[in-house]
């Protein structure tokens, strides 16, 4: 049997550009006042898209002037499988023409409060006033969306300014992540860890409110799949690892083959069943009775390929790692292990799963032989690396009951700290900008769970926009 799962590659999975529609709103009244205004403002809309070509792939709709036009263009955007819609008032346009549209719309929306010219001058006549009068149309349209209780983002700026492109880029990436979440399937191999409360969620509420769907995979599917992986694919993965990583000579051939077969079997299941995130709980693997070791290294390399991952059956963490990939790139699963008060930092790590793309650049990533009693199985090959020093952001999703969710975020810095030679798993020391005491007080008060996604860089504002556009409460600590 031939496996459908591709062998890991150095490039991973590149993120595509966000796909965004530009909905330009006008009204027919001005056609009689200023002949040619529709063509002129339509050109303005195309100029905006051209200027933002590096930010997204744009679909510019024809200017809409009534309810029928607007709803037809929006249907075209939905049918084109776009990630979101940027609304631009090309002139004033009464909101009642789009009120029902935005009440029913489910695509992320950005209301760009912009105008063709950045400055009012003495040369302006009535035509110039009309070309640049989108501001009160934006007010009317925003009022309609607020009344409809729809989440949306707003940007007011000179559309030629670099800051405008930066803010549109942030929103477009959040729209891409939100859209990806709406079709996300999370596969849980076995079951979630018993008695671990902060990973629990009402699966129906999560699906209704945000989109991720949780389903469970029999460990037997993984066992049978690992037996069916062709030997040539096993050899290819091992050869790739030999070329890419520093491989521990103590690793046995049996350990390498077991690991490779489990990774390839997991990915084959993910590909064939449409999962973009997953979890393997050590008890579910250990208690099955057919496995020799845990698939820890598999989680590291599959995260590096763009899959979401959460340990112990944590679907919320798996979904967050996937969102971290889509919003920012290089999502990394981790948890807070211990506080170090002298350095005002927190030791971050997990049992052995970690995205090696966040490893520091001046040390090799090692694939090691490692004795591990958890799961009561044999030694699992594990990637060992230290996190890259520099700015970093932690984020986690809190289920508040029903369809209410909260996202807790902390910005800070991964310290260039001394190695911890006894640790045989990925690790780093994260110093929150607010300090350990204030950060942890806020984290616990907000109900932040113990599994997180870490991204390199400062990205609280990215997560804030993601929350505003998806109706999630945002808390920064």
Automatic annotation (TrEMBL):
Keywords: Arabinose catabolism, Carbohydrate metabolism, Isomerase, Manganese, Metal-binding. One of its GO terms (biological process) is L-arabinose catabolic process to D-xylulose 5-phosphate. InterPro entries: Ara_Isoase_C, AraA_central, AraA_N, AraA_N_sf, Fuc/Ara_isomerase_C, Fucose_isomerase_N/cen_sf, Lara_isomerase. GO terms for cellular component: cytosol. Residues 193-323 form the L-arabinose isomerase central domain. GO terms for molecular function: L-arabinose isomerase activity; metal ion binding. Residues 331-473 form the L-arabinose isomerase C-terminal domain. Its EC number is 5.3.1.4. Coiled coil: none annotated. PANTHER family: L-ARABINOSE ISOMERASE. SUPFAM superfamilies: FucI/AraA C-terminal domain-like (SSF50443), FucI/AraA N-terminal and middle domains (SSF53743). This is L-arabinose isomerase. Residues 64-181 form the L-arabinose isomerase N-terminal domain. It is an enzyme of class 5 (isomerase).
